[in-house]
Amino acid sequence: MMTHQLNHPIVEQSFAIIDGEIGEHNLNQLEYAIARRVIHATADFEFINLLKFSPDAISQGINSLQAKIPIVTDVTMVKQGITTLVNKTFKNPIITAIEQGGDSLPGKTRTETGLLKCFDQYPNAIYVIGNAPTALIALCQKSSMSNLKPSLIIGCPVGFVSVVDSKQILARMMIPQIRVEGRKGGSPVASAILNALLVLAYEQ
Length: 204
What we know:
6-stranded mixed sheet, Rossmann fold, alpha/beta, globular
């Protein structure tokens, strides 16, 4: 398999350990490939039950990556987590919302402001939200008012304020999505999901 060209030997070794310890789960092969990478990034087996996939999310993600659709991340840390594999595979443009924020709109964070600007420019991008629930809520609201929709939303902000709400709003959207239920998530989780999709897309 080509994966070995993309994964460091220690990653492959970690995957073997996870496979040995994972036990029963309800994920299909492709969903498990993504969950396994998240568990590798976090050492937290609970993600096997927290990750939720819309029916078309993985195929849509793979097709979009292969088509070099832009990737919009909420924060710089997510961008840093995916840049190496993006450059080794399809070289999709990566745009970071917080870097586009400039002067925040009244009552909005810089990330939220930047994300709204990104949507105006790249409505069909792959959106990877690992940190900012306000940005995820803004993305969902903006998408619901537009005829143009993101190719995929990876929604896994982390924390206590607005986090669960943002994911519940996303869950109601008819947009291809991979999300993490509850309070867990974060930039390493968001990066791991996108990186796992890159590997799946590259193997095809």
